[in-house]
Amino acid sequence: MLEMKNLSLTLEGDKGPVEILKDINIVFKDRLLYVFTGPNGGGKSSLAKVIMGIYKPTAGKILFNGKDITGLGVTERARLGIGYAFQQPPRFKGLTVGELLQLALGKDKAMKECSLLYDVGLCPQDYLEREVDISLSGGELKRIEIASLLARELKLAVYDEPEAGIDLWSFSRLTETFQNYHRMHDTTIVLISHQERILSLADEIILVADGMIKEQGSRDVVWPLIMEDACCNCRDACSEGNEEIVQCHR
Amino acid sequence: MFNAIDKHMLQTVAGMHDIPRGAYNIRKNGVGISRNTTANIEIKTKEDKPGIDIIVKPGTKDESIHIPVILTAEGLEDLVYNTFDIGEGADVLIVAGCGIHNPGDASARHDGIHNFIVRKGARVRYVEKHYGEGNGQGQKILNPKTIVEMEEYAYAEMELVQISGVDNTKRDTEARLHKNAHLFITERMLTDGVQLAESRILVELVGQDSSVRIVSRSVGRDNSRQVFYPRVVGLNRCRGHVQCDSIIMHQAQISSTPEIAANHAEAQLIHEAAIGKIAGEQLIKLMSMGLSESEAEETILKGFLK
After folding, report:
1. How far apart, in whole angstroms, are the C-alpha atoms of residue B199 and residue A82?
2. CA A52 to CA A41: how far, in whole Å?
3. Which of B38, B60, B66, B232 is the most exposed place for a label (fewest CB within 10 A)?
4. Structural domain spans, chain B
């Protein structure tokens, strides 16, 4: 359904151009759940932003259901059914939670903000009239962000670290919620995450590091590779809680 | 009695779809054209100068007073003095908008000078909306001056809104708060084109445990200019908070100078001011929900000025 071909991204940094993504090739299939994982700064969020159209790739193509969407902006892609939940959602002075969700639902839809909020673990009575401003905690804001994606009938939903700031007890229920919602609309899901619990939900895990796709495959194949790579060799030499100065010789 | 333009202006500045319930005084092109008083609210024409006295009897509850002013001719200069005497323990809503529909090339101007006495324990909510329109070159000028005296335990909320179309405004607001009086001022301002807006506020916290909160939000577009100068002076044990927040766009210029002064060791005063453009993340978030860039911008500004 979504295909990225030889995609590269170079952004202007303080010290000149920085190559963020290098020759990315991925094909997403309908209705599957993908998880991007990998070290910080490896390019996961950038890849998500390229999918949403927030970043324009420097080279390569993006096809959506066979149509070349490389040149389309954020609004056009949203209208095609692509959605993106921010890692750090912006706040809006004066805009209420209810109004934001109404915008996500679209003008013609019947109101169902209540059930959306309920499903992300927020009491509608307490939140519909509240402003999406600094008065909300990070966790509350993330839940509202997730609700703003659930509100839409998406073909592709990208969640950037949805669990960040949300307590893990609630989060296991939340993952079920967005799986259920997206099953209703046959949505393909991409989750960016480091959580083992989320990785275990994946149909496919994509390991992104150094701006490249290092591994891609079913969780049974990729998970052992990640564990092997992610565990630092220091583990043998260093002990937890040791008061002596620990030096890593890796 | 009202033509289509009058009705449109009255609805915009005072939310009036029809003749309001309760007390009212409607002024058009420099003369009062319609008035109603109630058992508890008296409205009298001043004898020494243009304007009215509005007297609310002590203990009056849940009544409203609409005193909209509309100007629909060019070349008019309307100066009016209104005095509000809100009796002890009363609780009322006052809606005082001014709309100018200037069809010609000469200026139309309304200077409203409002004097308030909010007596002991009284509560007032005051809403003032300013709006201008018209196809000619004529300027729409509004220079309101509001002076508020708040007695012990009085409470007032003042909502000062300039919606759009006012070419030139100089707004002056002064308040003196006595013991345990509380005042909450919210100001909303939008300027565009080459409009000029200046707002000065001076609140003196005279009495013990009096408090004031001033929240000013503005949007400056095109080549417009805005100047904000809210000041709070603490003369007793008191609390004051001034917050100015502006969104700047295009080639607009905004100057924001909140000032606090304490003349008492137990005065607690805070000021904050911020000017900035719309955050890119906000636009992208709304666009990623299918809004166009201009729809996203409109949504953000509408919320901000709400």
Report:
1. 45
2. 19
3. B38
4. 4-304
**DSSP of B133-202, one letter per residue?**
E-SSS--EEE--EEEEEE-TT-EEEEEEEEEE--SEEEEEEEEEE-TT-EEEEEEEEEE-TT-EEEEEEE
Beta bridge partners of B220: B191, B248
Choose, out of A45, A50, A54, A75, the residue to mutate when testing the contact with B (most B CBs < 10 Å).
A75
Instruction: Return the number of other C-beta atoms located less than 10 Å from residue A129's C-beta.
Output: 11
Q: How many CB atoms lie within 10 A of CB A43?
A: 23
Task: Say if residue B245 is exposed, middle or buried (CB neighbours under 10 Å; 0-12, 13-18, 19+).
Answer: middle
What proportions of chain B, in percent to the nearest 5, are helix, strand and coil? Answer: 10, 55, 35
CA distance A152 to chain B (A): 8
Alpha-carbon span B242 to B245, nearest angstrom: 10
CATH code matching the domain that covers A2-91+152-237, chosen among 3.40.50.300, 3.40.710.10, 3.10.20.30, 3.90.640.10: 3.40.50.300
Q: Which residue of B has its CA nearest to A154?
A: B289
A89 contacts B288? CB cut-off 8 A:
no
Could you say which of A78, A94, A95 has the minimum Cβ distance to residue B290? A78
Q: Which of B34, B129, B119, B49 is nearest to B84 (CA)?
A: B119
Does residue A122 contact residue A167 with C-beta atoms inside 8 Å? no
**Alpha carbon of residue A159 to chain centroid:** 2
Report the interhelical angle of A168-184 vs A138-150 (nearest 10°).
10
Place of tokens 């954020």: A74
One pLDDT digit (tens) per residue for chain B, 306 residues: 788 889 888 988 888 887 888 999 999 998 899 999 999 999 999 999 999 999 999 999 999 999 999 999 888 888 999 999 999 999 999 999 899 999 899 999 999 999 999 999 999 999 999 999 988 888 999 999 999 999 999 999 999 999 788 999 999 999 999 999 999 999 999 999 999 999 999 999 999 999 999 999 999 999 999 999 999 999 999 999 999 999 999 999 999 999 999 999 999 999 999 999 999 999 999 999 999 999 999 999 999 998
User: B247 near B304, Cβ under 8 Å?
Assistant: yes
Q: Which of A66, A84, A64 is nearest to A190 (CA)?
A: A84
The 3-state DSSP class for residue A148 equals helix
Is residue A231 packed enough to be buried (19+ CB in 10 Å), middle (13-18) or exposed (0-12)? exposed
- Which residue from A108, A110, A112 is spatially nearest to A124, judged by alpha carbons? A112
Contacts of B302 in chain A (CB under 8 A): 94
Does B53 contact A at CB distance below 8 Å?
Answer: no
Which of A84, A90, A92 lies at the smallest CB-CB distance from B303? Answer: A92
3-state secondary structure of A15: coil
